[in-house]
Amino acid sequence: MKYDFNKKVNRSNTSCIKWDYLNAFFGKNDLNAMWVADMDFKAPPEILKPIQKRAAHGVFGYTAKPDEFYSAVISWFKRRYDWDIEKDWIVTTPGVVPALNLTMQEFTKAGDGIIIQPPVYFPFKDSVKLNERILLDNTLVLRDGHYEVDWEDMEKKAESAEMFLFCSPHNPVSRVWTAEELERLGNICERHDLLVFSDEIHADIIFKPHKHIPTAKISNNLANRTIAAYATSKTFNLAGLQLSLNIIPNENIRERFKLTLERLHLCMSNIFGIVGTQAAYDYGEQWLDELLPYLRQNCLTVRNFLNENIPEITVIEPEGTFLLWLDCRNLGLDDEKLAAFFVQKAGLALTNGIMFGPGGSGFMRMNIGCPERNLIKGLKSLKKAMADDSPILAGSGPVNAPDDC
Ligand SMILES: Cc1ncc(COP(=O)(O)O)c(C=O)c1O
User: Fold this and answer.
1) Is the domain of 229 the same as that of 297?
2) What are the CA-CA distances from residue 70 to residues 64, 87, 88, 125, 199 (Å)?
3) What is the domain extent for residue 186?
4) For a pocket test of ligand 1, which of 365, 404, 405 has the largest count of ligand atoms closer than 8 A to its C-beta?
5) Whole-number percent of the chain with pLDDT over 70
């Protein structure tokens, strides 16, 4: 192993939301933070060095994206997803959530139906509501420990929808959708002429034998109706650099998307986002290939620990992402008490399942993107909390959640 993921990095006093804003969101500082979806690892030196070199230059004027930026992206997409994309298809934004909001605003109108598949990354539903569109929940079905699409319901919801807001791989249920599932979803979108915003930000964090298949690769028809959102932010822990990539094969959709960006004068990117993204795709591969088994091992550590010590909580078998979906329904607590149990008794800051919408009640999302030692520490406090039979103080759970976790 070239990289050491066991090394603890102290993130305190860096203004990071995950560790420095615990009190604001959970009403308490002294918690083990396993919530916001970034990792506690340093980005690889292959990314840090070019960023440091650029910082040392000292002049940070308006900066374009060089050809090498685009070739790094194109080459990564070919190597990692076997997807041939063209330079023109790539449009950058300062994040995936801004891109999905922009898409909704430009291509749909107030009162239009937007399908999402809860329990899902909660800014999806927030965006639909904030933009005054109609939320159409195609709630995922949990069958024998595995999440599936409710196909009949999807077909029905598609009749009154304009757009499908898709999460692939899926946060938080950790599904990596198969070609068959993508084809079936694609057929529904085609039959009902839906625009697809496919959030593929977790595409690189996939556990073997699963494989990420870009939605737009499934068929020409899907490619022609899809805006696919990618980034290095989850993969290489660069979320603060605020650069995401929208892959838009359809020229009409792309031009409208770009025009909207121009109207807001959002065409340029942060210098460090450009340098970091390019370096990640050019030189970050080995780091990622070592990270994936480390994360997989973290998943197994949680699963084995819970099996042996807290069988009331089960892990939904993860297929991708560094977010574990814990089924806590057998604890017999309502959502308020469940949240309070984790915060007050276990000293753990996780994300409450209920925040992800229908199907999230009784679940918790645990971020395992951290050194194994911290994970084990958290699991031990959970075990101790289980043995503590003092009453849970309801109302002492998380107060709020920032938009981007
Ligand atoms: C599915 C999904 N989409 C988007 C984001 C955030 O993207 P960005 O920070 O680029 O807006 C997250 C972060 O957790 C996520 O899990």
Assistant:
1) no
2) 11, 6, 9, 32, 20
3) 61-283
4) 404
5) 97
